[in-house]
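User: Quick sanity check before I run a bigger batch. Here is a single chain. Can you write out its predicted 3D structure?
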Amino acid sequence: MIIVDPVTIAVGPSATREPEELREPDLATAVARARTLPGPVRLLLEDGIHVLSRTIALDARDAGLTVAARNPAAAEIRSSWSPEAIVETRDEHGRVWVATLPADVRRELEVDGTAAVIARSPEAGYHRVAHAESVDFARGFDALFAGDGHFAYTPGSIPALPVPHEVDVIVPHFWVQERARVTEVDPATATIGFEPPSIFALRDEKPDTFARFALENVRDAFRNPGQFYVDETGTSPWVRWSSGPEPGRRTLLYRPKDGERLGAVSLRLPRLASAFRLSDDEPVTGFTVQGVRFGGFAAPRELTATPPFHVSEDARLTRDGYATSPQGAPEVPATIELGVARDARIQDCVFDGVGGWAVGATGGASDVSIERCTVLSPGAGAFVTRLSTHAHGADVSRQAVLRLSVRDNVIRKPGRRFPHAPAIFLQDAAEAVVEGNTITGTNYSGISLGWSWGFDANPSRDNTVVRNTIDDVGSGVLSDLGGIYTLGSQPGSRIVGNRISRVRTAHYGAWGIYLDEGSSHILIAGNTCHDLEEHALNIHYGAHLEIRDNTFAFGALGLLSVSRPDRSADIAVVGNTFLTSGRPVYTGRAESCVLDAPIVAHGNRVWDITGQPVVAADLEPDGTVRDRSAGWRERGNDTDAFLAQPPAGQEHDREPTHDHESEDASCSSI
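Assistant: Done. Predicted structure follows.
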């Protein structure tokens, strides 16, 4: 092997007092210079802030390029803009700062490095849609993809919207959040129109209930210190009262907190979605980023998810675009877009409050390593692999991202703006290793693998999710989620040695490990899942699953469930430890009896701190627990289970929440 030492170019920060002829080149200039040099080039960022005015596009000519901080995390790449002229005025609610905004600045504001709150209605919680024509409650999930661009609201429930198009409507329901621009408001009929339309019907997960919604950037909700509002037309009264911006120009308004004074605090707004964008058409090889801090990037307001999405409902999705994709927010841009890179490394970086994903890659990329990074409050998640660009046509095969390594990263509070983004989302990946990551405070799932509903062959295979710590999953905004989530057949994949705790939901579906439709050929071993609003493990339907040597504890509904036993096969449950407090170990429902689950279970250990273990039961809609333990054993399951008391001192850690009703050994009484 011949190792060629890279050429090093020092890159100076954007703010400097050096004479121009003595300054080191800025980042964009240094990248252009690197292309003229032979061999690999290393750009060494000096301490300070490096401001980008445009995204740096890289292609095959940039092979071997390294961007590194001279001192880890002391060099920061930003795209943010700060107003030079701010004036202060007052109204009945207090002080207001006013500044003209350029057209390309995004609607996110940092005040001394802390995110400000956009004016919102309601200030907390949600309004409720009063009616939507496209909703058909009788058809249930069969009508889920009946999206809409209009709904009726309860008269008097929302403030006046004098400039509708500057307002965004947000609809969290099921497992996504829809975000769209309001186009019209008719107070006479109490209706709102918006674009792009929602992808799902404007209903909630609860039966016969319309969706929740909130409005962002609402002029009449701009009342409290720490809030901001963007006057897109420059027609608000604050502009007229101030001596600053000219009327008719886009304007930022901010209500300072006590103690904040003009000139003593910094206001910054992002300009770009991405710092680096590598080609999706030709691989850039050997691209590396080391020790750099990123901030001041944000997704554009006008963000549309474009079909086809490679879901069975694609034929029904005839609009040009929708407010979101069916799951996971892959359409949101990343700060570093790796495209189809080969041998790329993102190491020891910090992404603090970026507005989309931190790092994204496209199907066809290979040998990508993301290690020891810290991702704090991103607008979407931390890391995403997307469907290959070749897969955007309806009949073209998909490619996986090959040999991705995501190791030893810290991810805190992902999904700030797009709460339906998992912390780590691998749509199509093969031979990936997701290991040793710490994930806390998610709005949706922690780690999500796969993009195929059912048993059909797909690119996902041989992926390993090992020794991750995932805590505080789901904020109660969305439903149908898990600490680790899988979708579709994934031969050779393993979920091993992870620790998952505190999973909650808006209305349904809060599981430690969630094996969704068609999850198959997966080993789940040595994991610890505890303190869940529903179960430690849920199998929607799947086949050829081995569940062994796990510790599952304190699921509010039970520990292991199979939602569709009629579509499942070959599930082995061996050598696990189950710890519960008056809840069943295995559960079914009235329409899917636990005794029909294709489970072979033996060698498991059961502790119930109430001293009255229920091994298997069906859960009725009213909360009644129908004991099926006798029938479970008659089928040969857990006949050797060791039913024991927990260790001393744990006898009263939990209290049972439901009474049990004993039933006969069959499901015939249902």
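Residues 16-23, 391-396, 655-670 have pLDDT under 50 and may be disordered.

User: Great, the batch can go ahead then.
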